[in-house]
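Hey,
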Amino acid sequence: MKKIALALVCLCGISFAADYDPVKAEMLSLSCASCHGTDGKSNGITPTLAGMGKTSMNKILLDFKYGRQTGTMMQKHVKGFSDEELEQVSYYFSKVKR
């Protein structure tokens, strides 16, 4: 049973990575720079995105998109992105060094 669970976890990770397009992800991430800084390295009060885990960041972005997280302009910003695009952005920032 543990082997099956491990195989499923590995396959999920592979499918996420296999669809990753670094050029598209970087282009999409440019819309974040005005608030979160170049490459997600914020110097202000907005959170730093660089080095954030892809799974946790993707969950946060989807929570904003679907109204489960409120209180900032992020709700309006992420509505312009598809779920797949938000996944690309999450993967991009997870690869950027803090």
